[in-house]
Amino acid sequence: MCGRFAQYRSMRDYLRELDSEQDAMSGWEAEPIQRYNVAPSTQVQVLHSTGGHLVVAEVRWGWAPNWARGKMPPPINALLEKVATGKFFKQIWPHRALVAADGWFEWVQDEDNPRIKQPYYIRLRSGAPLFFAAISQMPDAGEDTSDGDGFVIITADAEGGMVEVHDRRPVVLSPDLAREWLAPDTTPHLAEQILLHQGTASWEFEWFSVDRAVGNVRNNGPELIHATGPFHHIIE
């Protein structure tokens, strides 16, 4: 996952798709978010559960433990294969979150000209919102964010034909698994099993080329997700 995604619907739309029995507390608005080019290190609306309620908090995309800060840019993604057992994310592994989104971008290098990279937009073939599995350090309810707050998106090996656009992809959870991922009674072991075995299958996605303007983080607008080439997907 190269590090850009779209989050343009309203949080009300995402919460409706999630259909959680947990009440959503304040911290979100009904207006469309209208972000078509979400970039690392920016503040992003992220869902997490606290005290039996869903909370929407704006936190930075990227996180590192205290001992690693300043040594390198904070990672924005965590490898599924290591996230539950490695020491880097040990502090936040128990703190599960969801990133509600509409799709993400990947860049493919041109075989004839390595200097040129063609961006592709990937989304569910159904057109429904999707939920990235994430872990985070969040502010307490009603508190402002601190320098240590942030989140990372968990990524898995890209299966089958999705390798054409990238060898990694975010772990996307269906609404029922997304609810289970956030549930307070979901054990760390069960959470790991959800990641390992129950992410949305590759054949449920489609992708297509888009304008290279998405490569500039200052650009934002629905034209960034308009197809400039044919649609692709994996045959089930």
Automatic annotation (TrEMBL):
Family assignment from sequence similarity: Belongs to the SOS response-associated peptidase family.
**Which InterPro entries did the record assign?**
SRAP (IPR003738), SRAP-like (IPR036590)
User: SUPFAM superfamilies under this entry?
Assistant: BB1717-like (SSF143081)
> Which Pfam families does the annotation name?
SRAP (PF02586)
Q: Which organism is it from?
A: Ectopseudomonas oleovorans
- Report keywords, A-Z: Covalent protein-DNA linkage, DNA damage, DNA-binding, Hydrolase, Lyase, Protease
> What Gene Ontology molecular function terms does this protein carry?
lyase activity; peptidase activity; single-stranded DNA binding
Name of the featured protein: Abasic site processing protein
**GO annotation (BP), single:** protein-DNA covalent cross-linking repair
Which Enzyme Commission numbers does its entry carry?
3.4.-.-
